[in-house]
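User: Here's a protein and a ligand (zinc ion). What would the complex look like?
Assistant: Let me lay out the input and then the predicted complex.
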Amino acid sequence: MELCIDFGGTEIKLAVIDGTRVVASGSIPVLGSPADLAAAATEARRLLTETTSPADAVGIAVPGVVDPTSGRMLHANAKYDFLEGLDLNVWALTEFGLSAVVENDARAALIGETSTGSAAGERDAVLVTLGTGIGTAAMIDGMPLRGRTGHAGILGGHLTVDLDGPICPCGNIGCGEALASTWALPSGTTMTEVFTTDAHPEIRGRFLHVWGAVVTSLVHSYDPAVVILSGGILRAGDAVRAPIEAHVRAHLWPSMTPPHFVVPPEPELSVARGLSVLARATTIHTATPQEEQ
Ligand SMILES: [Zn+2]
């Protein structure tokens, strides 16, 4: 069994997973201070008392860049700047006596969906989460891309879509996320309003156009068989998925086969599923050639 902790944008989601079964789950609000870590540990211990057998490992997802070698967070969004540089493996050892694997949240969601979720068995996939920001991750031939310093595949929201667009807080110009995300909305306007009412047709059209361009660039970059679209706004159904898919089909490189698009039916489980897979892998002992001799 694995204890999975997802440090999300508005809440910290925790789950204990046995195989593909969620045996206990809970969530706590994010305060944006080191107190979040203590609260997460308390909630995790409460969940572990609800289970019949002990957890074997911990999986932790963070909304930021994780060094693939050390597991430390290299860059966090504002709410979690207190996690930067922190060794969460040491934290998990101290709090639970268990070692932890730390992963970027979008990459964990991609691993979850391609292992036991909506794209199970797919080896070439791109995941795009639309919402507060634009989270992305990519897998090629069964391998989630991490790259030299952990940045590969996860910066899809920071591809330039408009060279004459605004400077993004990341430093780049006209990023997709700077043009079409919750924080790019005019104040007082919500995503739900934009996508479930006819109050803001111009914003809706522009956002879908930007997301279509972002996904087309990701398909051109990674040649996926499947594109997984996730995030709360996908609950608006085909109003979001269909225009993005149509944009990709209309502007795809001529010799490419269009990927198919899936929307996970249980997006709240994507990250936990991925963390469970990653954490379980750390507990399976594989004999080294030296040990076999
Ligand atoms: Zn940016």
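Summary: Residues 119-263 form a domain with the Nucleotidyltransferase; domain 5 fold (CATH 3.30.420.40).
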